[in-house]
Amino acid sequence: MKTALIISAFLGVGLLLPAALVAQQKDSVITLEKVTVGSQKKKQPFTAITPAQSLNRQTLQQINAPSVGDAARFFSGVLVKDYGGVGGLKTISVRSLGAQHTGINYDGIPVSDAQTGQIDLSKYSVTFVQSIDLQQANAQTVLQPARAYAAAAVLSINTLSFSTEALQRNRWQAGLRAGSFGLWQPSAGINLALPKQMALGINAEGVFSKGNYPYYVDNGSSSLNTKRKNTDVQSFQGEINMLKQFADSATWQVKLSGYNSSRGLPGAVTFYNERSVQHLWNEDYYVQSRYRKFFNHNNTGLLISAKATRSYTRYRDPDYQNNSGGLDNRYTQYEYYLSAAVSQIVLEHLTVSASSDAAYSKLNANVVGFVYPERKSFWNSMALNYTRPLWQLNGSALLTTINDEVKTGPAASTINKLTPSFAFNGKLTAHSPFMLRLFYKHVFRMPSFDDLYYRLIGNTSLHPEYARQYNIGVVYATAMKGVVKHLQLSADAYYNSIRDKIVAVPGKTLFGWTMLNLGKVSIKGVDVTAEIDGAFSEQVNWFTRLNYTFQHALDVTDPTSVTYKNRILYTPDHSGSALASVNYRQWTAGYSLLFSGIRYDLGENNPHNQIEGWGIHDVFVSRRFNIKQYALQVKGELNNLTDQKYDVVRFFPMPGRSWKISLLFNNL
Which Gene Ontology cellular-component terms appear in the entry (predicted)? Predict the structure, then answer.
């Protein structure tokens, strides 16, 4: 009840804030300013000032990606740590900087987790997603929350509900996906275009799966075929979205979202011991609101964002040896967030922006000796963007202040850090297909509550983990005639340096680990992305997307250590993806590939710690049926066509060959 009252009060603030702002406008203003939508238009990835990649809704429907975590694997430079199955945890690392350095935005507002510092992307379904964008360094728009500048890379999840397209007409869809290992995934959503430039959107989805896929344990004469156990998943997520566009073209958006899941956690595969009884429950609820307005002939922009979040996690392990008959840990995390940003065109080619964000986070738990940490965070940014016809220059500075308090024991020291970034792109001539781009960015990540205060291993003396990013790249984009219509190619070389890397170090006993600032990592790599499309005839068109990453991520902490200049954990030298599709009238067929080279699960790179590379092939065929003003799409897919046996995380085998059939009925 207390949480409900807090959320209601917070929503009330969201209601009053834009109302107060709109009340300042004159009643005589009754016409829409014609360029508001245009000012929100997203730049194309291949023309961005820093490396950007995007997967639109059409592409998301053509790949084996039930969650955002699965879809992110199709970006170059991305590593997704996947523990297998429909309900397996999935975290993203961009250019080997770690999940804690990757920012996640959902409909323009940051997602955070102060407890672990990383987001489980398996919670986010792609069913109602319009696009997923990955931006290195800073996002393209100058009008954004200050918190967005704090990440080394930003993964943005965008839905129709927070777009002015929702105002145009009523839309609805209902779908069902079924597949191997007892998968059932029903979904339904509706968007209503209401009078007075308002829209209401409601969507919901459930996932039910046994997840008991077969796998093979190779142990010579004692090898066996068996099935994963404790892999059942039941989850439900739903959203209510409201969008209002005012007469002066200002927009106000409110989202109320909930996620509830119950997941078995299949443990690491150990020969002669298949028992796994750990279980995880999640309950996540939040309300967020955003108000955006351009005025003064669109020379001035205003963005106000707010969010309140409650996240509950319960972890149960009956086999844990203690006097309580196992573990039953329960954590409840709260965060309240407010942001204000302004932008101003001060000269013909110069735009200045400033933003200030504040967040309050706290964590409660039923754990003995818990310190009940609270964190107050403040971000203040200033950015300049200078644009000429042939080149663009962008610079920013972010001041971050973080203060922790605990009920018992010492708290971490207060942090005040100023971090800059710089980016440039340019072309020699207006019609040149080539573009050069480069950027530098300095970021840090604050230790999480677990790093600082987790019982037995937490260390309140930890310093932030710093990362410096350097990038230089070239883009080639051209239109052509014939079978190939468009060709876009980008290649970016980069160097990342991490110092004071936070690592867990064992003590005198197995249970005496502690967190220390010991690590230094040197990361060199090249990301290559290509998109090609064309047509064989008026009725047959095709599309191809290729991504490749070469990366050398080395531990350079201690020259006397056996791990010195060895590859860091789970980082292959070579990885990538491919996607190809062909459309003929109402038919679409496609193929996708994901591959990874060899990796190591421990810091010492020897044959015993080596994990073999893998390649996964998926195919699909879909048919669209038009029934009056409605459409029915039927899709069949075969995943892991060659039944590749592989692990993303060692001893957590991934599913072999599987199938899915999906039905989507809509009026879109």
Answer: cell outer membrane
